[in-house]
Amino acid sequence: MVLATALGEDLSRAFLQGLPPGSVYALIAIGFVLAYKTSGVFNLAFGAQAYVSAALYFQARLEWGWGILPALLVSVFILAPVLGLILERLIFRHLRTSSSVAKLVVAIGLTVAIPSLFDVLVGFEPVAGQTPTGIIPGGASVFYQPVGVYAFSRDELMAMGVAVVVMLGLAALFRFSGIGLQMRAVVESPRMTELNGIQADRVSAFSWALSSVFAGLAGVLIAPRFNTLAAPDFFNLVVVAIAAAAVGRLISLPRALAGGLGLGVFIAFANTFLPEWALSYPILAPIQDNVAPAVPFLVLFALLVLWPAVRATKEQADPLSGVDPPPPSLASHERSAGLTVATRVFAVVFFLTVGLVVFTQADVSWLFLVTQSVILSTLFLSITVITGLAGQISLCQGSFAAIGGFTVFQLSDRYGMSVLVAALIGAAVAAACAALLSLPIRRLGGVWVAIATLAFAFFFDAVMVKLPWVGGGGTSLLQGTRVPRPTIGPWDLGNDKAFLVLALVVFVVASLAVIQIREGTTGRTLRALRGSELASQSIGISPARSRVMAFALSGFLAGLGGAMLTMHQENVNYTLNFSPFAALFWLVLVVSLGSRTVEGAAQAGAAYALFEAIVLRGAVFGWIFRNTDRIPGIFPISPKWRFIIFGLGTIQFARHPEGLVEFNTRRAHRRAEALMARLGRSRAASPPEPDAPVTEESVP
Amino acid sequence: MTPILETRGISKSYAGIGALRDVAVQVGEGERVGLIGPNGAGKTTLFNCILGLLAPDAGSVRLAGDDITSLPVHLRARRGIGRSFQRIELFTESTVREHLLIAERVRRGNGSLWKDLLGRGRPKADELQACDAVLERLGLGELADEPIEQLSLGQGRLVEVGRALMTHPRILLLDEPSSGLDRQETADLAATLRDLQGEQGFAILLVEHDVEFVAAFTQRCYVLDFGTLIADGPTAEVLERAIVRESYLGSVKRDDL
Ligand SMILES: Nc1ncnc2c1ncn2[C@@H]1O[C@H](COP(=O)(O)OP(=O)(O)OP(=O)(O)O)[C@@H](O)[C@H]1O
Ligand SMILES: [Mg+2]
After folding, report:
1. Of A119, A156, A366, A514, which one is least surrounded by beta carbons within 10 A?
2. Model confidence at B68: pLDDT above 90
């Protein structure tokens, strides 16, 4: 009897405790679904929007000393909708007819770009250990105990109150206002609604503004729960929102609400009961701390994999897309043999020169950066395979790379194995993990694959890394995850230049392998699958088998790159190198610069490691003037511009998935050839422009 | 003799609305059979059930006597069902020849990762020849190296037919191959298909809105209306019967894309 009461008390306390965060999750889930339903955009940047409002609120309250109301007004009710409108008007409205994967990529780019852009514009710097108080005085210190078992803080009551008011407001809006009715028509109808262009634009703009307000509110409400106000935490938040929204299959607002509340309560249960169970079952002890934060990711993954309804949910095409003409199609363009030779010669000369300069002139720090760029290029080839060849978005490449790195660490730390052998084993382990991961998700559609891999990345981050046999070897407590540099027979690659040579060799071998695969049957199969899954199946290609293969290959390259990076830095440095948020930037870079080619991966590697040093710190001027004192005064520019520039660079992905560099190269080639043709009065007709509008006759 | 393709009692409904009801069709070895019916009759749905893109609610599909109802799509394709699509399905960013080449390679089972890595995955001369031969016969020889995006809708349909042919099908399902082609091109396609069929002996199940094409090309024909088979028999007879129903033919004529 006593036991039963204690259990009942625990249950009801956990339930009440889960409601306030659950309300916030519900807010974001609903905001997320609103944007998704009206524009087909799987808006991962939702977390970034929440961050911006929370950060402005922080800045206004703590730095500028504003009161609660004006700060709230400006950050949530002015900044947020304006940001939403800008995103809709400048970006997503033009992508209506793009594929959902293309929109997702743009949203990922924005996730990376928006927080940095805000930080740079407002001059915001996160302060460790400091977050603003909530939106009510004494929010964290005054408690009420309306039901008995659990004392709500004012902040918590406020969060629930806001959620209730907002839901009622939304319901009223849908019922009584003109724009609300139109929105509801779009949100609730499974088919295209009969809106004309102007109405469609209005609905879409209004939904984005509204959705953005939801994001802002949630951001401000949740910020006090974080230790430090930093963008990655808000990115986690959006994954929670997606988990909640997935409960409603991303289409139902009421179920998204229920999903948010349910998830909050579920997490509270996990927090309450897991530690108790861990006491009685010692096996659970090492994971108990880490499982609770991973609950949303587990729920999300389980929903995607186990619940057929979610899997079967057709990807939301933009319901308004019928309003716009279809985008111009791509056209590939072969360059002439002469031009190919010319480019190759140029490339060889260029790289020999760079190599010579690096090997004779570069100091330690430049050597480090150049080596890093070569290693990252290898790692980015994994994105070339999975995204460029297979057309799938994987957001857990960081985890695969980390598996490579950790394997090297464990094998060398525990068994004293040669790190080079360990690196190969690490790559193989990563390939195996990738293949295993891809099995349950092999039937998911494009966007869902991205989300499932993201859930895995967060799960890996929250749980796996902390396990002793992953991130904590015998010595990790004292020394961190240290790894030695390799030696091959008499050569000690502890020497930076020697290691650079090794990195180059690995990169060249990996590139050749990727090129062989791309030109071989595997590459053709993947390309066919990317072009049309239906047609590929109809000629006997097994989509599942090809996908698993692509994941395994990609995992191998990522693991290899991760292992190399670990050896180079002589430490795994998980958080710095491989965390899910850090790895988002990889995808952004590769996609911006060119996910189809080895050159794209190499350029992305160089951009990651060298762009900041050469461009943002102004070193290039130092070289031009041969004098570092003459670097113009505006340098160094904030390194955050990397995120802004390449993040916004993904916007072109929708129109030119081959990437910025390749697009421009092709254009340059075309121009060069047109010029040569004109000079030589050749009879050859100039090839058509790729962005020339296609006639109705053409293939859609 | 066992028919090459046989469906028994296929039923399929979308969200409670019946699209096919108890449909049974048979196609004999080397036969040319038509499947006609107004828009929304369920013709494409039947094709999807035969190839396995849709799971029927009831009924079975047999290929040369074997029950293939539970096989995944790609295995059905490898067993000999070739298909073209009504809403054209091409491999974006590939050339015309690559469409056929990939089908040829898959058929030969030439695709191991190790071969690719050793540089043995590149197209071989005889594979290229086989593709070019089919392209020539479809009148696409000149376009072999064109990116697929440059083709007209009609040419795209021909590429689909060529791609399906490369799998050496035992039965070819064609979903409105003539839409987007003019009279002459349609006649050429019919002639080419007839020739190839004479050489390779595959059967054809043809969905068409162009009644003249069906009349000239097929030997037998099924009529589907609101998901139910309402007539079958020798094409000429069936069309005679159908012509009586003016209203119906009116909708048959409408070309829909
Ligand atoms: N994915 C789907 N979801 C719901 N209903 C569908 C779906 N696909 C087809 N239908 C419906 O099933 C019925 C049969 O469609 P189907 O495409 O098979 O007809 P069809 O005979 O090929 O027509 P058409 O001549 O226009 O190509 C139609 O009423 C159609 O609206
Ligand atoms: Mg049809």
Report:
1. A366
2. yes
